[in-house]
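Reading a protein record of the kind used here takes only a little practice. The record below shows the convention in full.

——
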Amino acid sequence: MRAWRALLRRRELLDRRILGGRIYVGSALWALTAFGFGLLVWGVGGFVHRDGVDPHWLLLTLAASSSLMAFRRTHPGLVLLLSTGVTAVDAVLGPSTMVVFNYGDAFYAVCAWGRRRLAYGTLAAVVVGGVAVTAVMVYLLVIGEIDYPLVVLQMIGVYVLVFGSPVTSGVTVREYRNRMALERERTQQVRRMAELDRRNAIADERGRVARELHDVIANHLSAIAVQSTAALSMREPDPERVRRILTVVRDSSLHGLSEMREMIRVLRDADDTPDLEAVTPRLADADRLYAAAREAGLEVRVERRGTPRPLPGPTDAAAYRVLQESLTNALRYAGPKRVEVEVEFVPRRRGARLRLTARNRVAPAAAGGAGRADPVWAAEHGAGAGLTGMRERVDLLGGVFAAGPAPEDPGQWRVCAEFPLPEDDDAAGPEPAARTAGRVGAAAEDEEAT
């Protein structure tokens, strides 16, 4: 690990820019190394002797060629152009080995760090040049200008060594670097998507917990508040009525405490994905809702249509909560205290779905005499957390939700929710009997403690 970190630090040092960003440290060191090695090759006679040419002139082309290597990453195209001129002059004077080597490195720099069009244009030019050189050498061999085929192979090998290998290496390095950049970008995108998914999951879980808390707390407390208001509004003492009101208050409190305990138990579970639907009442428990509403003084008329069928767990729980919220709103705002509930299982031939409808007339006091367009009346009848929770539950399951004054009777408030159902009954989850039994047992324990 330490060796890897040391290597990264050295790489960062070589990639550091100097002289106002014109030269990289690594390129400067490479230029000095090329010049030093060129002096060594020149010293041992690594150049072609020409009559009448002082070999010391080759030191100038070597210095010029090596100096250009310092700019090979920042200005690769210009370096290749100037290196072509320096190499031509060196070829007239010598040529020398290191200048030719630097010229090949200029081709590598263009393909590795130059612009994309310049890099692939250079690659195409080298390929075309290689084909041309091969054709010329073969032609000279055929007409007899070259006596040995080995000379042709040697010339082709020199061309590949000076031009082909640097260009191929540069393009390979360029593609590898581009692929690494794409992988880094893809990794960043995956990381951002994972973070967004995490935030969305947290937001969804918070919304679900908020809906459950509202349904557990607000509905039971609303029933308690209505009954308390009724008790306080009595002008003359009526022990029997007070006893009945206290019974409703006690039952609402016990049911609320029981559901709250079950929810807290699930949330405290070690499982990373708590299943709140596992402790949520189902549509089969709706009779308890009707009984509680009747005890609270609300006349409930229930009409069932169609053939009941097993429901998926989320749909079953959401249907119960929609009925619960609808009855609570009717208990608070209905006048007279009467609500009509329709539970319809639409058959498969008409598109399998569950339709819940609750209708009740609105008391004039609730509307405040301001009409249905009044924002205060609208807030009390659907713009609050209860309506938002119902709409969210239905939307999450791909259903349709509507709440507002009935078109055929403006004085009537109607809540309608439709849930799509699977075509196969096996897709519906089994009724968790142990959950229901545990909740009833907890309620019994609370009643005994009371």
Summary: Confidence is low (pLDDT under 50) at residues 367-383, 430-450. The two ends are 66 Å apart (CA to CA). Residues 80 and 106 are 5 Å apart (CA to CA).
